[in-house]
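@channel sequence for tomorrow's demo:
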Amino acid sequence: MNTHRNQLPASHLLLALAIVAVWGTNFVVIKLSLGSFPPFLFAALRYIFALLPLVFFFPKPKVPWWNLCIYGVAVGVGQFGVMYFAMDGRISPGLASLVIQTQVFFTIGFAMFFANERLRLYQAVAVAVALTGLGIIALHTDANTTFLGLALVVFSGFSWGVANTVSRRAGSINMLGYVIWASAFSIPPLLLISLVFEGGWQQMSASMASAPIGAWVGVLWQSWANTLFGYAAWAWLLSKHPAAVVAPAPLLVPIFGMGASAIFLSEALPIWKILAAGLVIAGLVVNLFWPSIKNGLSRT
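structure tokens (generated this afternoon):
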């Protein structure tokens, strides 16, 4: 039976919601775990458990080693290592879940540069709307969200855009195996940064020895729920449905992220933050849906 359709069946819709709920609420898990682990060690542990023991059960995907290396460093160090560092007192979890979505626009920019894709007017409008939202956040920096934290998470979005561009070059492969094997390239630089800047091996071993069980559950949640389940289930949905049907789901990530932060961490949601979130999400919606909206209007 052909499962490609214009609407997700209920079970697949629930799976998509489960994925974005994990990805969104994950920012709360990150914040809580950072109370026990320094950020780059925390990121290294995430990828150690993503790599082991599954690397022994998944063959290396048929992609060049350089592709796995760039993806692993971009995601492991540039995206998550830097984002963990930013979330360690420099930006609130809810805003981090929102600002990281700038990856969409960096991905567009890289496509223009490397694939000679042209920037269309609606994409320029989408970027301008989203940048307005980021500007509002920049004007409201305080003790919980600093300008440095905002800049670091934007850099994380840039790194995610790099990873998206590299993974597109990988072609049609087993994405779970790809993520597992790329994790091998995330671990060494993260451990090196932790050794040099987070107190050396003595401090690293002390934080691991003193970490409560809840912090280790957070590490495993990062590795298995967020990385392995999230990516594997997402790849499975994309294999069953057109990308245009599945792609809108991550727009809910900031909703889950900001909502979970408000509920579990008592993160305030003033009007300016809701307005900024609305503008960033509006920019993402315009970028994603404008061609379909335009086609629909032209047929009426």
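heads up for whoever presents: The radius of gyration is 19 Å.
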